[in-house]
Each structure stands twice: as C-alpha cells, then as structure tokens.
Amino acid sequence: MKPSRLLSVLTGIVMTCAAALAAAAPAAASVATDAAAAATAAPRAGGAEGADHFRVTLLGTGTPVPSPARAGYSTLVEAGGQKLIFDFGRNVSVRLWQLRIPLGSVDAHFLTHFHSDHLVGLPDLWLTGWLRPPYGRRDRPMALYGPAGTRALADGLRQAFAADIAIRHKDEGSALTGITIDAHDVAPGVVYEKDGVRVTAFENDHGDHIRPSYGYRIDYRGRSVVLSGDTRFSPAVVAHRNWPCSAISA
C-alpha cells in the first residue's frame, strides 16, 4: 500500500495534547493503551483520583474481524470524577469490568457513527450496567450522545429488549429509572458540559457514504484529548487539535 493511501485510511487517531499536560505537572494525567494491563492496578472508584485527574484508556482497538486478542473499538476518558465512553465495540463491558469500573457508573456515552463494530457493545453496556452491584448499579438514565439517528437507535433498543426489561423489573425489582436512555441527536459543536468537562463534536471524513460521522474533543482544566473517530485525512480533525500533540493510532 502506498504511503499516501495508508495515510488516507488510518482510523481512530487519538491526539493527546502533551504541552498542556506538561504544564499541569502536579495533576495526574496519563494514557493507558491496554485495559487488560491497567486491570492490575487498584479498582478505581468515581472521584477517588482527585479533581485534577485526567486519563485516557483505549478499551479496545479492534476491527469487525472477531478476535479473542482484541476488543472492539472503545475509549474511556476520565476527567476529575467523571467517566466518559466513546464508542462501544465488542467486549466493552468486559474491558470496563477488568478495570473494576461498574458499568452503570459511566456518566456519559458518545457514539461516532453507526458502523456495527462501533456500537455492537452498546446493548450489553446498557443492560448489564442496569443490573445489581458490583458490576451494574446504574440508578439514573443512561446519557447517550451521537449523530442524527441516535434517538432512533435508543428507541429500537428499548423495543428489542422490552421483554427482558419487564422480566427483570418484576423478578429482581430493578428500578426502571436505570434502564431509561436519555438519547440526544447532536450537531457539531459543544454537546456536553458539566463540572468543567466539555465535549465538542465535529464532522470527520470516514467516507462519502458514511455520514454523519463524528470525532470528539474533550477539554478539562487546560488539558485536552482529540478522538478522531474512523476517518481519512480531515481538516476538521486538524482544526480541533492543540499542538504540540502526540498521536496514537487506535
């Protein structure tokens, strides 16, 4: 494959802004490239790392090809006491629990586009996160953000699993609040802002027939990370970087 062609099809570029991280040296900030390796660390409870904590973990970098060695595409961003998930590839729930993060403790969920390898893990994360502790425990609506069609996706999930939801509600007493999906069809721009964490969506260039397709920039206390999503070369991705940055192919 020619270098120019390879550049055009690179997917999942994660840009972490090194300058801002270095300037905030006293604050905890890191990029974990393997959730399985990170699982050897102590369990992480929400907010336990302190208000300045900023961490990016690649939960999976796989493709549609089934592989026991690679989980599907998903990225966890922790900022202060908040946990944000971007895309939901195969085994995202397993990877989160390897880190001893209760699935229901995730604050917000973001979808880049509607390819199955980026969302096949969403039903599992949604449903299992509703179950009892320690791995479930969601007691509030699941916040979901994505391109136009995200609300329709959520409606379809509710219909597909209506029987399971009804059974668990009656048999286990699970509160229906935790199985509610608060879904948002978002346009490019700031789509989430809470306690100093800001998430900005922008259109990338995944392909002529794959639209809308988004990347996201996450800002927190002077630091930022840009998740390009699957994309060819895209001026929008470049425009949302904060040089100097390091780039990681995911």
TrEMBL record:
<keyword id="KW-0378">Hydrolase</keyword>
<keyword id="KW-0732">Signal</keyword>
<dbReference type="InterPro" id="IPR036866">
    <property type="entry name" value="RibonucZ/Hydroxyglut_hydro"/>
</dbReference>
<dbReference type="GO" id="GO:0042781">
    <property type="term" value="F:3'-tRNA processing endoribonuclease activity"/>
</dbReference>
<dbReference type="InterPro" id="IPR044094">
    <property type="entry name" value="AtsA-like_MBL-fold"/>
</dbReference>
<feature type="signal peptide">
    <location>
        <begin position="1"/>
        <end position="22"/>
    </location>
</feature>
<dbReference type="InterPro" id="IPR001279">
    <property type="entry name" value="Metallo-B-lactamas"/>
</dbReference>
<protein>
    <submittedName>
        <fullName>Ribonuclease Z</fullName>
    </submittedName>
</protein>
<dbReference type="Pfam" id="PF23023">
    <property type="entry name" value="Anti-Pycsar_Apyc1"/>
</dbReference>
<keyword id="KW-0614">Plasmid</keyword>
<feature type="domain" description="Metallo-beta-lactamase">
    <location>
        <begin position="71"/>
        <end position="241"/>
    </location>
</feature>
